[in-house]
Amino acid sequence: MDVQDLGSAFVAAMALVRHGDPDMLAILGLSLRVSLAALGIAALVGLPLGALLAVARFPGRRAVVVALNALMGLPPVVAGLMIYLLLSRSGPLGAWGLLFTPQAMVIAQAVLITPILAALSRQVLEALWEEYAETLRSFGAGPWRAVPTLLWDGRFALLTVLLAGFGRASAEVGAVILVGGNIEGATRTMTTAIALETSKGDLPLALALGLVLMVIVLGVNALAQLLRDAALRRAG
Fold first, then answer.
1. Backbone angles phi, psi at 26, to 5 degrees
2. Cα(151)–Cα(124) distance, rounded to whole angstroms?
3. What pLDDT, in 10s, does the model give residues 84-128?
4. What are phi and psi of 18, to 5 degrees?
5. How many domains does the chain have?
6. 129 conformational bin, left if phi > 0, alpha if psi -120 to 50, beta if neither
7. Domain range holding 99?
8. CATH number, domain at 90?
9. pLDDT at residue 4 tops 60
10. What letters, b where the CB count within 10 A reaches 16 and e where it falls short, cover 164-196?
11. Of 92, 102, 71, which Cα lies nearest the Cα of 176?
């Protein structure tokens, strides 16, 4: 493809974004619904787990922390393969009929970002626990009772953790395409559509989705930085 063709594709992509192409909007809507649902599930598990690891001391805690840190780098295709095997017809959860559905993609993204939320929230709340430990103990609050307090007092810092998780989920392609199947009108997200449309040579739609995805990721990171700065000013 020469420069002129690439320029034409970019102009066409901008037109799709400007006019709100229905196919692009449908893909965008599904991507956001899947990523937000996965983030909600991961937050319900990851944030309390991170808070508990920040305050509790028990045999094997260090091993759990090391495992969480290692799972932050879990290859998406490996996670996708494991979930595929679980949800396939011959798998233990095959009777649920979730494979190649948006629900399967939610599960895949949640599995990937839960360790990230748990590990990052542990780091954030461990510092907060060191600051509040004596005060909370003086009120008779042990580690278990301290978890809700830490989650509430660290809510601004934890927002940056959640945004990091959302950014990771929204950019996922490997696991999602394995368990979702990239079915048009059903399980096609921005990342899987970009891969497909590029392979088909439909660069305008791929570029349009890429531009939207970049705006979302940059916006999430900018918001995370603003919240982090606000939290630092509040702490200061």
1. -65, -40
2. 10
3. 999 998 889 988 989 999 999 999 999 999 999 999 999 888 888
4. -65, -40
5. 1
6. alpha
7. 3-235
8. 1.10.3720.10
9. no
10. bbbbbbbbbbbbbbbbbbbeeeebbbbbbbbeb
11. 102
